[in-house]
Amino acid sequence: MKAPIRITVTGAAGQIGYSLLFRIANGDMLGDDQPIILQLLDLPQAQQVLRGVMMELEDCAFPLLQQVIISDDPKIAFKDAEIAMLVGARPRSKGMERKDLLEANGVIFSVQGRILNEVAARHVKVLVVGNPANTNALIAMKNAPDLDPRNFSAMMRLDHNRAIAQVAQHLFQPVRDVKRMIVWGNHSGTQYPDLNHAQIRGIPVRDLLPDQNWAENEFIPTVQKRGTMVIEARGLSSAASAANAAVAHMHDWVLGAHHNNWVTMSVPSDGSYDIPEGVIYGFPVRCNQGRYQIVQNLAISELGRRHMQDSYRELLEEREHVKHLL
Ligand code: NAI
Questions:
Q1: By the 8 A CB rule, do 51 and 71 touch?
Q2: Which residues form the Lactate/malate dehydrogenase N-terminal domain (predicted)?
Q3: pLDDT tens across 289-326, in order?
Q4: Which of 43, 183, 234, 244 should be mutated for ligand 1, with most atoms under 8 A from CB?
């Protein structure tokens, strides 16, 4: 029997938490032979709900779930964590401007970065889901100077999955056959869903499109606006699909992505594709044995380059608003 892995989930009493925890405890993320300990963090006013969630986790009698710890103290929740999923964030309230949201969440992620630095396992893998995810991940990373920056990531997997689903539906092909999708940039409206390298059973998706304008006129805006469409339909933001993406992101990072394929992760740039070093940016990555590598030397069109630089510039603006926290 393997030793249990401590997994911290913040915002665990929220709606993504409610979909995410049961998937993790079932073994969907780390495999069906990996025992786990869940360390759940939420605000003091959410502790009663969190107790209810803990009772439900217990009532599932998951064979892999060794222990559930709940707390409103990050020092307890992040203690010895090997995996940290930072979901909890302040939602945008009425009248709140984007810069106020950046500031409010920036404070949360600077504190959590410092505490990760202090008490988490040195090899902790961090996934930031709470928005604005890329900038929050940058703040957490900068506040954790003793941890390897490569252990910080932000979630673009939901955008990646949305892009795959759009192509599969449009071409009447099975989702599992759509490989090598990419969503570059920021997890925001400036992201650049790029199907130019995608393949279906080895055939370039571009060659299968009946109408070449579909990518620019429909695919890109649909993927960019999908989150807003879900909010309009549900009255709430994506939760089960976000949890599913978080499980997939961490699964592939820890256990490896499928052979001959890549996935999108927001990770600190190494200077690839003219994105300056250190910017947390959505890239295609190959994962192997707990490490990722940015896929190199892909040809990028002029239009693609413009989209990529627009998203980078937005990240620079976000960074400017929170520079006192870095
Ligand atoms: P929610 O509002 O249902 O839950 C958030 C939870 O976080 C609440 O229980 C709240 O009490 C908690 N929280 C707030 N501040 C905290 C702190 N300092 N420490 C610990 N817990 C804290 O929100 P939901 O729907 O679960 O979404 C969570 C975040 O994920 C939001 O920021 C949302 O925008 C983001 N998101 C990101 C996606 C992505 O693709 N990167 C996709 C969907 C959502």
A1: no
A2: 6-152
A3: 899 999 999 999 999 999 999 999 999 999 999 999 99
A4: 43
pLDDT in tens, 73-104: 999 999 999 999 999 998 777 777 778 889 99
Closest to 300 in 3D by CA, of 158, 184, 167, 177: 184
Instruction: For ligand 1, say whether the CB of 11 is within 6 Å of any of its atoms.
Output: yes
The three-state secondary structure class of 203 is strand
In one-letter notation, the amino acid at residue 220 is I
Determine the distance separating the centroid of ligand 1 and the alpha carbon of 187, expressed in angstroms: 15
User: What gap in Å lies between CA 219 and CA 266, rounded to an integer?
Assistant: 21
Supply angle C-alpha 312, 128, 287, rounded to 5: 80
Q: Which two tokens stand for residue 20?
A: 């995410």
Secondary structure of residue 325 in the 3-state scheme: helix
Distance 75 CA to ligand 1 centre (A): 19
Check whether 98 is labelled as a binding-site residue: yes
Sign of CA dihedral 248, 308, 272, 200: positive
